[in-house]
Amino acid sequence: MGKNAMTNFNFKIVFRVIGMLVGFESVFMLVPLIVSLIYREDDTPAFLITIGITFVIGLISTFSFRNHSKHMGKREGYFIVASSWIFFSFFGMLPFMFQGSITNPADAFFETMSGFTTTGATILTDIESVPHGLLFWRSMMQWLGGLGIILFTLAVLPMLNSGGGIQLFNAETTGITHSKLRPRISQTAKRLWFIYFIITFLLVIMLVLGPMNLFDSLCHAMSTTATGGYSTKQASIAYWHSAYTEYVIIFFMFISGINFSLVYFAAHGKIKDLFKDEEVRWYTFVLILATMAVTGGLILSGHTINNFENTFRSSLFQITSAMTTTGFTTADFTVWGSFCNLVLFLVMFFGACAGSTSGGAKMIRMVVVMKNTANEFYRNIHPNAIVPVRINNQVISYELVSKVLAFLFVFSLILVSGSLVLTATDLTFEEAFGCTLSCLSNVGPGFGRMGSSFSAISDLGKWVLSFIMLVGRLELFTVLILFTPYFWKK
């Protein structure tokens, strides 16, 4: 292959792959269209028009660039992944606008980006009035975005396996390292989606056994497995007043916060490996500790919810929901007091495990930083000592530690910058910081006036938060690197 082929940006393969992805989105929309036809509501024309527009544009983009070089480097991979989420959100918002549930483009894009990035923040103030087809599409967006749009495409398009699939896989997958279950990326993608589907299916069955009907069970199963948080009710899970439903969702939120590769191996009999993993142990420990802290804080501050069991369940639910960045609610945690809100802030920042559908900084990064900090204390006393960071008894390279530190610095920088911008739009500091952290960690619920809906935020604030949601979902560098001058240089 010539030098130019290696250095020039391959726009043809980029637009061809994006065209395929957009075409797939039109196929996905057939499912909520069927739901709309079943319930005979007025969102059917909106889906028909959107499917037609999306399919035609995807078809044109795919076949207009058939003659292209198959070379896909890191630059093409980063660009495809970052831009595909924007295109998916743009076309995904059209049914809301055509039907009339959301007429403001800023609101519609925010709602859709929140769906695909599994953030779960909403601008809707009367969710029950939205047609069933659109409600199903909201949850389905989160389910598709949970493991990743690109990962699904890799599973069904083997052609990408040899045409830069590894670049796409690495650009979209979360965590500090990316493990493959099988030698071929398409095989890994298929296995991950298989276990993802099975978990969703099991949760549907469990929820149907409770007070939820089949439609609500399907929607909440997709949102839970994706750790997304979109509900079919304005009151979220609190609508059903069911301890059974809450405990079931707590369990599946917890499972969805674990690295899906470990869940896959556990399902194949290697359950011990799940409990041997250091990140899973820390994830479980922090979740239990935070639940105990919030439960104790509610009791000491006089915010006990009916009885101890209700207080404990509410604490466990909100901590699990915040830590896995799902975003479901069973209580108004904004009135729990500063201590409880601070604990929620912290677990939202930490997140769950890498390789899961959750957002946040990820527990593995926090463990690496903690161990590296402990080593620095030791080196102050023994400056000549070589003390490496070990995870699961394996040495973590200095380059990887450096990358983790850089990630946390940029994460904090975006958090502060986003908060500053939002305070300029007449939000209080708590609201600005809470909403920015919620969107950056892909959690969902805000603080203050944004506890259940982001509708009070200005259009500028919604566009900023939409961008922050995308940056958070793709773990910063995949998006931000597009704005560096050396990305575009030959």
From TrEMBL:
Coiled-coil zones: none
Pfam (any one): TrkH
Highest rank taxon of the organism: Bacteria
Upper lineage: Bacteria, Pseudomonadati, Bacteroidota, Bacteroidia, Bacteroidales
UniProtKB keywords: Cell inner membrane, Cell membrane, Ion transport, Membrane, Potassium, Potassium transport, Transmembrane, Transmembrane helix, Transport
Keyword tRNA processing attached: no
PANTHER family, per database record: TRK SYSTEM POTASSIUM UPTAKE PROTEIN TRKG-RELATED
Keyword Protein biosynthesis applies: no
Membrane topology: Multi-pass membrane protein
Record-annotated membrane-spanning stretches: 13-39, 45-65, 77-98, 140-160, 192-212, 247-268, 280-300, 333-356, 404-424, 463-488
Family the entry assigns: Belongs to the TrkH potassium transport family.
Primary location class: membrane
This protein's name: TrkH family potassium uptake protein
